[in-house]
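name: query_chain
kind: protein
chains: 1
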Amino acid sequence: MWRGLIHAALVLCLCLQPAAQRLPPSAILQSTLNLPPLQLGDVVFRCGRGIDSAIISEISKSKYSHVGMVAALQPQIVIIHATTDDVPTKANQVIASTLSFFVQEAKRFAVKRYALSAQEQQQIAAFLHSQLGEPFVLDGKRDSLYCTTLIVKALGAQRSASLRFHYLQFFGITGLFLFPEDLWQDARSQVIYSAGEQ
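structure:
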């Protein structure tokens, strides 16, 4: 019962929150200078400072509220991710962001790596690029397209088969959901970097 009341209160706060304003670049952005070399297919986690991040973190009991994947390394690192509002002119879709843009408003971020062959890395990058512009869909169905399911689709059925979707009511939608925490807890990948508030 209490969880339901907390959830309802958080959703109400989100609905009443004024339009988000850009925060000045955080110390997290500076910390990207210390990253080890990244690879295609690396999974990048972040937790923002907004109420939506707080809601996702609270519901999933996670330090992270959003996830993307490295899809290019040159001339700069590019993260492809499904988002609602990172870029107002590209709302509710799969977008490409530089790493610095992806983390600029984060209070923490981390990178995990799966053991991928060079061929698998290229296949994942090609798949991610093919998804650019696809609509963000959060409707409680297992085949919906939002940040975590984009990663699951990129990794393929074999690697994602053991990830557990959760049945719950989320933002007024009842169904199956996969949270960034589920990818974070996947023992088949290893943390190669983390930074920010703990």
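note: The domain at 2-196 is CATH 3.90.1720.10 (endopeptidase fold (from Nostoc punctiforme)).
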